Structures are given as C-alpha cells and as structure tokens.
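Design job #97: recover the sequence.
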C-alpha cells in the first residue's frame, strides 16, 4: 500500500487558522492513519505486506513559511518509524520516502488565502518571505527541478518494496544533499544555509 495523497500550504505560522491546519492534517496525517488502519488487518491475515508512506523534504528539515506542512510530514516520518518496529513481527514492512522538489502541481495548486491573515507586521513579513521563497524556488528550478522527473519517486517506491532499504528514504538530488548535510553538518551551520535560502530580514 502506498500512502501518496497530500496537500501543502504556505504562510507565516501566525497566519494559519484552524480550518487550514485541519485541512493539512486531515489529508497528510489522519488520511494516512485511517487507510493504514484499514489495510493492516488484511496484511496480518495474509502474513506479509509492505506500506510505503510518502513524506517530504519538509519532514526532514523544518521548512520556514510551511511550518504546519512540515509538522504534518514530520508526523509521518515518526509514525512510519514506530509502525516499522511495531509490525515487523507480523512480516509487515513500513517505510517512508521523502521527495525533494519535483515539477508537479503540489505547490502551484496552493491557495494564497492564508497570506491575508495576521496583523500588518505579519502580513508584511509574509509578503517578503513569499517573495524570497519564489526567488529561491526559481533558482532551484534552474538547477534541480527542471531536470527532475516524478518517475524517480515511483522508482524509489519500487526499490523500497523489492530491496532491503532503510525505513527512512529520500528521492531527488536536493533531498539527498540536504539530508546528508543534516547528518554531517553542525545544526547551526545548516540552519544558516536554510535561513539564507528562505528567510528574509525583517
């Protein structure tokens, strides 16, 4: 079973209202939980199974301007790890794949309604952050996304199903690069890189 459904959203943390938060978690977390709960009894009965959850690079490194989305994807990373340990005795594998940036409609379909929330200071800061994020996205697109192919994620799913891969996996050169930096670079330096990419000065 592959849990691939997901939605995203952007905005400074204070701009997120209950409806937007509920929507993100209902699809990205509770949806995964509900479907997984339905399929596990079937897999236990047949004596084997594999569950692949699709997370995000934002589930490995906190993403400014997408804090709620990051929180939901971090939840999927933790849920996967716990289930992998819990259901191993039933011969059920559970793995997660965190894709980086791919040329899909995930971000192009985001509503900007949330960006009008908050006081004047937050809205002004949000506008600057949105502009900086767009510039960074355009720069990354020239080097990474333009040559990316969502088929890479499908290939990684197949690899995870057929081979002895780790519980946590990434897909995409940007995800591989930042995941490697998180494991090897001091946290302060890594946060500095993310800040330079995505966080404007006030």
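Job complete. Output follows.
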């Amino acid at each position: 079973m592959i849990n691939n459904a997901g939605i995203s959203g952007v905005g400074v943390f204070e701009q997120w209202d209950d409806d937007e938060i509920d929507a993100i978690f209902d699809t990205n977390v509770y949806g995964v939980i509900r479907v997984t709960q339905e399929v596990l009894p079937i897999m236990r009965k047949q004596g084997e199974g594999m569950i692949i959850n699709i997370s995000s690079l934002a589930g490995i490194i906190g993403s400014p301007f997408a804090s709620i989305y990051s929180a939901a994807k971090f939840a999927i990373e933790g849920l996967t790890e716990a289930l992998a340990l819990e259901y191993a005795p039933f011969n059920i594998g559970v793995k997660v794949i965190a894709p980086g940036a791919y040329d899909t409609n995930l971000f192009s379909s985001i509503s900007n309604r949330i960006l009008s929330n908050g006081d004047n200071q937050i809205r002004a800061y949000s506008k600057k952050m949105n502009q900086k994020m767009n510039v960074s996205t355009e720069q990354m697109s020239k080097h990474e996304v333009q040559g990316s192919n969502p088929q890479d994620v499908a290939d990684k799913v197949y690899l995870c199903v057929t081979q002895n891969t780790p519980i946590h996996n990434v897909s995409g050169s940007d995800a591989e690069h930042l995941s490697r930096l998180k494991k090897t670079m001091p946290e302060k330096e890594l946060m500095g890189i993310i800040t330079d990419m995505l966080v404007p000065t006030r």
